[in-house]
Amino acid sequence: MTIPHSFARAARNAVETSALLREAPRPVSKPKAQLRRYEVSTLMENGDVVQTRHIAPALPMFEDAFCAFTRGSLVETESGPMAIEDLLPGDTVLTENGTSETVVWKGSVTLIPGREDSRGRTRPLTRIMPDTFGMQKPMSGVIAGPAARLLGTPGHLRHVHGDGPVLTPVHEFQDGMGVIETLPPTPVELFHICLKRHAVIKVDGLQFETYHPGINAVRRLSHSLRSIYLNLFAHVDSLNDFGPLAMPRAGDGEIDAITA
Questions:
Q1: 200-203 and 206-209: which strand pairing?
Q2: CB atoms near residue 218 (< 10 Å)
Q3: CA distances from 243 to 64, 104, 107, 144, 214 (A)
Q4: What is the pLDDT at residue 258?
Q5: pLDDT on residue 140
Q6: Cβ neighbours, 10 Å, residue 89
Q7: CA 246 → CA 28, 53, 99, 167, 259, distances in Å?
């Protein structure tokens, strides 16, 4: 029995369509926003210290507020070196110009640096060997988080920043010898602190900055995310309340200029 031409053509078209569907790229589904748990301690105006827990996006702008120092990092205070995990809002730390400033906010987060997120990004740590930057700089081995900035300019950036003081992302100092990248496959707790104003403090004999979102924060945060971000900081009402930067800061291919 002869198959009608219309049936034969329909069968041929079905085979060809099936082959095209197999070869055609499937639409890429947008990755779901990953969430993270952030722990916060804040010094309130009445002197109380309030501890809160937040679930917020695992975006660089959010994570950078928590990912500067690992457990055991020694912060120089009026009473001597204190481990970052023991430091509380209300305690005073020494700044690079010798003054004492009060800690008003401390945040922490636990993540696995070697695990890729939904966008394939990792959060490498930086290990600094003892005496890398001079005698007792650092005093012992230091492991800094991905958001840490160190006062100084590595050789390959001096043609850009000159010899003036600049706060530089710590990973820019990696040289494969005294300063190396490390990606632990297990959870690591990271911390950051805010003072009443942006400053440089001494941690393990090295000069690191306290947290500041940067002068470009308004452009980096959408309006919908801004309120979620500010909820992490009970001591401020707006991004302007973080105040000016203490000194120029390198990052994201730019230098954040000091604002008055």
A1: antiparallel
A2: 13
A3: 18, 14, 19, 25, 10
A4: 45
A5: 84
A6: 22
A7: 44, 29, 14, 10, 9
Q: Which residue type occupies 255?
A: I
| Residue reference for tokens 């507020």 | 65
pLDDT tens digits, one per residue of 107-166: 999 999 999 887 788 999 999 999 999 888 998 889 999 999 999 988 878 777 667 789
Q: Residue 158 half-sphere exposure, CB side, CA atoms within 13 Å? A: 5
Q: What is the pLDDT of residues 106-123, one digit of tens each?
A: 999 999 999 988 778 899
- Which three-class secondary structure string do you get for the chain? CCCCHHHHHHHHHHHHHHHHHHHCCCCCCCCCCCEEEEEEEEECCCCCEEEEEEEEECCHHHHCCCCCEECCCEEEECCEEEEHHHCCECEEEEECCCCEEEEEEEEEEEECCCCCCCCCCCCCEEEECCCCCCCCCCCCCEEECCCCEEECCCHHHHHHHCCCCCEEEHHHHCCCCCEEEECCCCCEEEEEEEECCCCEEEECCEEEECCCCCCCHHHHCCHHHHHHHHCCCCCCCCHHHHCCCCCCEEECCEEECCCC
Tokens in use for 36?
A: 């993270």
